[in-house]
Amino acid sequence: MTKSRISLFSLFIATAYLISVFAAGSVDANGGGATYVGSKKCKSCHNSAKKGAQFKSWAKSGHANAYKTLGTAEAKEVGAKLGVSDPQNDPKCTKCHVTAYNVDAASLGKKYKKEDGVGCESCHGAGSNYMKKKDMAAISLGKVEGSSLGLTVPDEKLCTSCHNSESPTFKDFKYEEKLKKINHPMPDDYKSSKGYK
């Protein structure tokens, strides 16, 4: 082989390797190839008062209305100052106002809707691999590590990836205070009745 063919071949191999690394990274980022099923899928198990009414809590929150907020006159005014003509369709805005921002369309399930705003899966990861009742029970009983199925536990780093000074409407963000407002745990008496951890 000539030097130019060797260089071209080496470039090809390096490019193929990098593509495989980045592709693997994007799969891991959404729960090992899991799809985003949409917040309505979570409702069937996370809506009753005895279990903590997590869906109802989310539905009343600013997170649930994050996408709608981008359609308001105020959002359009803020956007115009930043050169954004349509906040509901501009990545500068949707990266923090929509679940599964910049995810390949193949990773979006049939029930996924960007109109759900910052939904359950924005904080807890793409749900198709952990949404089944038996999987959630196994996780809650400590038999299966949730992260092995793509379930994530949100932390301050996740929250501040959007609640930060990059946002044109950012106000001081005190994680512990905000967590108390958005936190939606399963009640202790329900957990103990099921033997959950």
Poorly predicted runs: 3-31
**Oligomeric state of shown chains:** single chain
In helices, the fraction of residues equals: 40-55%
CATH class group of the largest domain: Mainly Alpha
Q: Give the distance, in angstroms, between the N- and C-terminal Cα atoms.
A: 62 Å
Order of helices and strands: HHHHHHHHHHH
Range of strand content? under 5%
How many strands appear in the DSSP assignment?
Answer: 0
Mind telling me the CATH superfamily name of the largest domain? Flavocytochrome C3, Chain A
Give me the number of helical elements: 11
Structural class by secondary-structure content = mainly alpha
Q: In CATH terms, what is the fold-level topology of the largest domain?
A: Flavocytochrome C3, Chain A, domain 2
CATH architecture of the largest domain: Orthogonal Bundle
In short:
With 197 residues, the protein is an all-alpha fold. The chain contains eleven helices and no strands.
Structural features, described:
Helices cover 46% and strands 0% of the residues. It has 197 residues and is mostly helical. It folds into two domains: 1-30; 33-194, Flavocytochrome C3, Chain A (Flavocytochrome C3, Chain A, domain 2, Orthogonal Bundle). The chain starts with a helix and ends with a helix. The relative contact order is 0.14.
